[in-house]
């Protein structure tokens, strides 16, 4: 009886049917015509214990970043989630609640989300932050749509060096508006936006210019200032993509006069989770608030003058504006945002700065270690890096990848398929989760693989 | 009597102690160029116990399914399995990176593969993508698939039909994909007006978005006819899966003539709502639309599971990576546990809704056909005239009894609407109590009802003022 | 019915806009007192751009209140030649003075005959009475 224990009224079925004047449960489905009647078959249910055992077996088929060092980034980094965060979002008053449409009974969630908005506002220097989008890519897509609604222009200028998935998402989000993407190549020496090409790409039909820092190659010193100047000159909006942990030590995007800020907030207090759920940070200037998508929490007063939180400016959203809504988004990533609020509260002013510096420190250390190996150059693109960097290898990165795996190490992100001009370049990410032993393991594995290839063994 | 916790809990920033930090992280020296170095980082300075206490108190000023009845129509606030919560925290699921070599994530891929299949079977579809992050997101995908499909056929279709009873995400998603939304009026009983539909369908129609049972909890028994009308014009029929809980085991969207379906993982399949998210919105399609699905889906070759990018006419991606995996995992656990007994789940959901309806319709109007599926819509229109209390007032007063309000003012076609979906997780006692409470509220002094709530953390909030004098972060205070 | 003001110097639409003929081809448009009272606290208004061509009955503007959003439809066809920027900055003007300071936009008529299809003040009064029933 796999679900009986979850169905309280099952045990009163007879009584209830009698009160309704019905003889069997089937009577409640007499409105479903014969022609459409169909059962499905997915097999018998199982007990909780059986399912638990099965899930343990499936878990054992995965090798997680705690079992073997994983040096992957490319838009999502692996950061440690403090147990206090997990504790808080495991409280069922939070996770079994719904969207706070009845604010009086949902002050807990609302205050937590208001604090999330405020913390991100402080981190990015922006005036208004929404209560989350699905991830950094959809946040970018929505930002492009918002730019159009503000200036009615159709082009969105982006760096060629962004995660290809992000670009595909952006394409889909602007399709309905017949907008077009204009890509700006990167300087092949420096790995940052080519200034001349950027200047040529932006014109009077540019709705917005999008730039990231650190950029896709992990470089901090991207041409953000230049992008800002060029965008402002042509009266295009500036959308900046950020890494919120890097902002612990880097200048906030408000310093570059960003009109919209997007980024991957999932890394603030949420595990990578095989890619989801994530958290799209979305922030903008106050003057654009009516064009902003997503839910927004505001502070007000109740009938007794007490401080109270509530969802505001709901008229922008789909349940009121319907086809004219700023976005179709309804369910967002609220609980992930609460996790981020707890995370940022725990780290705070001092912890986040230390964490950001630690990430830079570790990346530099790893870069030096890899660079000292024969057959490898790190970083490939020079410049200041956050926690990700490019590595050039003499031997085929695919061979390296296999060699590392067989030695219990997961190498970086191979760029060969999406960036053929960077065939031999791999993107390595490292964070506070890696230990010196992890680095040792990687270095000796790389050395071994290289030597094996040289000796003709592979 | 219900009394919610009433802490005057300050904002976390207001708890700052100079120099304090809540995580132990070593201090290191790094070289950052002047022009990139941040000067001020105005975040809070608090320690771990302070943070935990703060958020724990906040949680006590919040209401969830684990506290009481949460009959929000259209949301399916059913009990969230605790085994799902436990499993989602296994590090082998939480700490895997989406770009890891497939050989190192076979467990995750297998879960996604099996879930794809189970959802396809439950909904009568041929292929499923787990990529969308929510129902609305999946609706958007469905609209993009329609676009790709018709572009491929060289057909210029610019309109999407939506009944006026539809959830706001339907027209919003269609509009986002670039379609013109054609809204058709429903009949008095809430079902699709076939004549209105007929006039609305043309060679410009790409699709119709519909849910069955509809947003009044009534089963559209004309569904095959509706499907035929659209298919005759070469248009597609899209199923909004929000109401799937009302039909499992009895019928499937695929057998009702739908070409595309989205599933709200956080509704029907017990994944928690999280205070607004995260959810997951799988999308299923019939075979002829499979080639347009977002990439990748998970496929299998022998014993090996892999990310399949061989979808020739795929619309591309709508989200980074493959979907909200940790949320999908919870649905996987639920479906594995229930198996074919999901039918029993639907039976209880429908029994609960009809039972509760039979009790409340004695004192509040419930328009439309008498037999409902898993939810029903009541109208406070008459009560407003007779006693001066509106749907809003009743909703606020219910909170005082420790029950969450129903969905208010939706669907738009019912005046002073109150949409009630008890779900299968309520006992007969809970339902009896709900009916009692509703009856009591209706006979109470209208002034008490109009000034409700009284027992919650805050009283009724001045929304107009908060919308005018916007305070959106603590920097605005 | 005394609660809703209806001016006798102008015409009305079924969707609660008023149209005031100012000259042979100029029509000023706004929303009625009834519409304002139904909307509640108006917090935002989106007006069409000057120069936009509109057709009678088309959705040209949006007014948002705290809990609702209403489309504003052009009573007649023509071109938008003026918009009231004042109400964009201060939406209370619409609530306090829907027939005067709270006007929304001016249309240059392309087909004066269309004015004949609009509702007279008396017809509009009847419409409201029906809706209130």
Which features characterize this protein?
heterotrimer; B: 477 residues; alpha/beta; Aspartate Aminotransferase, domain 2; Aspartate Aminotransferase, domain 1; 2 domains; seven-stranded mixed beta sheet; three-stranded antiparallel beta sheet; 15 helices; 12 strands; 34% helix; globular; C: 133 residues; alpha+beta; OB fold (Dihydrolipoamide Acetyltransferase, E2P); six-stranded antiparallel beta sheet; 4 helices; 9 strands; 22% helix; 34% strand
CATH-derived topology of the largest domain in chain A = Aspartate Aminotransferase, domain 2
Class from helix and strand fractions of chain C? alpha+beta
Secondary-structure element sequence of chain C?
EEEHEEEEEHHEH
Q: N- to C-terminal separation of chain A?
A: 56 Å
Number of helices of chain A: 13
Give a verbal description of the structure.
The complex is a heterotrimer of chains A (458), B (477) and C (133). Chain A is 36% helix and 13% strand. With 458 residues, chain A is an alpha/beta fold. Chain A folds into 3 domains: 48 residues, no CATH class; 261 residues, Aspartate Aminotransferase, domain 2 (3-Layer(aba) Sandwich), CATH 3.40.640.10; 107 residues, Aspartate Aminotransferase, domain 1. In chain A, the strands form 3 sheets. Chain A has a 7-stranded mixed sheet with strand order 1-7-6-5-4-2-3, with helices on both faces. A 4-stranded antiparallel sheet of chain A has the order 10-11-13-12, covered by helices on one side. Chain B folds into 2 domains: 256 residues, Aspartate Aminotransferase, domain 2 (3-Layer(aba) Sandwich); 120 residues, Alpha-Beta Complex (Aspartate Aminotransferase, domain 1), CATH 3.90.1150. Chain B is 34% helix and 11% strand. Chain B has 15 helices and 12 strands. The longest helix of chain B is centred in the last third of the chain and has 19 residues. The two termini of chain B are 35 Å apart. The mean pLDDT of chain B is 96. With 133 residues, chain C is α+β, with helices and mostly antiparallel strands. Chain C is 22% helix and 34% strand. The model of chain C has no long low-confidence stretch (mean pLDDT 92). Chains A and B meet through helix 1, helix 2, helix 3, helix 4 and helix 5 of A and helix 1, helix 2, helix 3, helix 4 and helix 5 of B.
């Amino acid at each position: 009886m796999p679900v009986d224990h979850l169905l309280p009224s099952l045990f009163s079925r007879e009584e209830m049917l009698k009160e309704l004047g019905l003889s069997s449960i089937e009577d409640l489905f007499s409105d479903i015509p014969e022609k459409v009647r169909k059962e499905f078959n997915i097999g018998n249910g199982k007990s909780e214990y059986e399912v638990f055992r099965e899930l343990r077996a499936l878990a054992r088929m995965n090798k997680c970043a705690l079992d073997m060092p994983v040096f992957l980034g490319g838009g999502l980094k692996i950061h440690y989630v403090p147990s206090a965060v997990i504790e808080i979002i495991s409280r069922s008053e939070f996770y079994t609640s719904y969207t706070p449409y009845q604010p009086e009974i949902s002050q807990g969630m609302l205050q937590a989300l208001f604090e999330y908005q405020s913390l991100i506002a402080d981190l990015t220097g922006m005036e208004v932050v929404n209560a989350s989008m699905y991830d950094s890519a959809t946040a970018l897509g929505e930002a492009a749509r918002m730019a159009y609604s503000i200036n009615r222009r159709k082009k969105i200028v982006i760096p060629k060096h962004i995660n290809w998935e992000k670009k595909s998402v952006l394409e889909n989000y602007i399709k309905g508006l017949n907008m077009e993407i204009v890509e700006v190549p990167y300087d092949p020496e420096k790995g940052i936006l080519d200034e001349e090409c950027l200047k040529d790409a932006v014109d009077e039909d540019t709705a917005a210019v999008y730039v990231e820092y650190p950029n896709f190659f992990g470089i901090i010193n991207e041409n953000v200032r230049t992008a800002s100047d060029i965008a402002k000159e042509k009266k295009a909006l500036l959308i900046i993509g950020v890494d919120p942990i890097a902002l612990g030590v880097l200048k906030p995007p408000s310093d570059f006069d960003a009109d919209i800020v997007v980024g991957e907030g999932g890394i603030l207090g949420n595990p990578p989770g095989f890619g989801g759920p994530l958290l799209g940070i979305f922030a903008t200037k106050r003057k654009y608030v009516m064009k902003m998508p997503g839910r927004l929490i505001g502070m007000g007063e109740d009938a007794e003058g007490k401080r109270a939180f509530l969802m505001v400016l709901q008229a922008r959203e789909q349940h009121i504006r319907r086809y004219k809504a700023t976005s179709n988004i309804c369910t967002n990533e609220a609980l992930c945002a609460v996790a981020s609020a707890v995370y940022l509260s725990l780290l705070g002013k001092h912890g986040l700065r230390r964490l950001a510096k630690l990430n830079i420190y570790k990346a530099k250390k790893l870069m030096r270690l890899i660079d000292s190996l024969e057959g490898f150059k790190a970083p490939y693109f020079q410049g200041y890096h956050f926690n990700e960097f490019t590595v050039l290898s003499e031997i085929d990165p695919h061979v390296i990848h296999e060699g590392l795996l067989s030695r219990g190490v997961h190498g970086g992100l191979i760029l060969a398929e999406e960036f053929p001009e960077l065939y031999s370049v791999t993107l390595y990410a490292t964070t506070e989760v890696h230990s010196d032993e992890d680095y040792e393991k990687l270095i000796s594995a790389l050395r071994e693989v290289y030597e094996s290839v040289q000796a003709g063994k592979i | 009597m219900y009394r919610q916790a009433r802490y005057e809990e300050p904002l976390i920033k207001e708890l700052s102690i100079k120099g304090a930090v809540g995580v132990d992280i070593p201090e290191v020296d790094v070289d950052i160029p002047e022009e990139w170095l941040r000067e001020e980082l105005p975040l809070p300075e608090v320690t771990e116990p302070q943070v935990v206490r703060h958020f724990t108190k906040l949680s006590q000023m919040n209401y969830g399914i684990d506290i009481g009845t949460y009959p929000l129509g259209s949301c399916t606030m059913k009990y969230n399995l605790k085994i799902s919560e436990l499993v989602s925290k296994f590090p082998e699921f939480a700490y895997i990176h989406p770009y890891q070599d497939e050989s190192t994530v076979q467990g995750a891929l297998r879960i996604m593969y099996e879930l794809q299949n189970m959802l396809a079977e439950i909904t009568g579809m041929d292929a499923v993508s787990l990529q969308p992050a929510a129902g609305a997101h999946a609706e958007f995908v469905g609209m993009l698939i329609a676009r790709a499909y018709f572009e491929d056929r060289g057909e210029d279709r610019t309109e999407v039909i939506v009944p006026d009873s539809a959830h706001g995400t339907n027209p919003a998603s269609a509009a986002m994909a670039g379609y013109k939304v054609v809204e058709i009026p429903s009949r008095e009983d809430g079902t699709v007006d076939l004549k209105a539909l007929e006039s609305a369908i043309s060679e410009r129609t790409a699709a119709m978005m519909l849910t069955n049972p509809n947003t009044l909890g009534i089963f559209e028994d004309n569904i095959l006819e509706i499907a035929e009308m659209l298919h005759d014009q070469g248009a597609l029929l899209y199923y909004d899966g929000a109401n799937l809980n009302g039909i499992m085991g009895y019928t499937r969207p695929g057998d009702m003539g739908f070409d595309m379906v989205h599933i709200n993982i956080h509704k029907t399949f017990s994944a928690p709502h999280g205070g607004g998210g995260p959810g997951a919105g799988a999308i299923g399609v019939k075979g002829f639309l499979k080639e347009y699905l977002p990439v990748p889906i998970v496929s299998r070759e022998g014993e090996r599971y892999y990310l399949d990018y061989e979808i020739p006419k795929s619309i591309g991606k709508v989200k980074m990576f493959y979907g909200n995996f940790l949320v999908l995992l919870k649905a996987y656990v639920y479906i594995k546990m229930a198996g074919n007994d999901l039918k029993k789940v639907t039976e209880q959901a429908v029994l609960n809704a009809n039972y509760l309806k039979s009790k409340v319709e004695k004192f509040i109007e419930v328009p439309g056909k008498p037999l409902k599926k898993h939810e029903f819509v009541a109208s406070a229109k008459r009560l407003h005239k007779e006693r001066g209390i509106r749907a809003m007032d009743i909703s606020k007063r219910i909170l005082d009894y420790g029950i969450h309000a129903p969905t208010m003012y939706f669907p738009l076609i019912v005046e002073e609407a109150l949409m009630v979906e008890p779900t299968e997780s309520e006992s007969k006692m809970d339902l009896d109590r709900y009916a009692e409470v509703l009856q009591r509220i209706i006979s109470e002094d209208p002034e008490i009802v109009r000034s409700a709530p009284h027992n919650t953390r805050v009283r009724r909030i001045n929304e107009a003022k908060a919308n005018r004098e916007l305070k959106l972060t603590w920097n605005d205070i | 019915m005394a609660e809703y003001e209806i001016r006798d110097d102008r015409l009305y639409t079924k969707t609660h806009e008023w149209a005031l003929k100012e000259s042979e081809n100029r029509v000023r448009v706004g929303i009625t007192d009834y519409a304002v009272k139904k909307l509640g606290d108006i917090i935002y208004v989106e007006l069409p751009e000057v120069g936009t061509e509109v057709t009678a009955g088309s959705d040209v503007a949006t007014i948002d209140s705290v809990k609702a959003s209403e489309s504003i439809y052009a009573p007649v066809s023509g071109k938008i030649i003026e918009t009231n920027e004042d109400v964009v900055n201060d939406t209370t003007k619409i609530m306090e003075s829907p027939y005067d300071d709270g006007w929304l936009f001016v249309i240059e008529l392309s087909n004066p005959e269309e004015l004949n299809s609009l509702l007279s003040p008396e017809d509009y009064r009847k419409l409201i009475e029906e809706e209130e029933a």
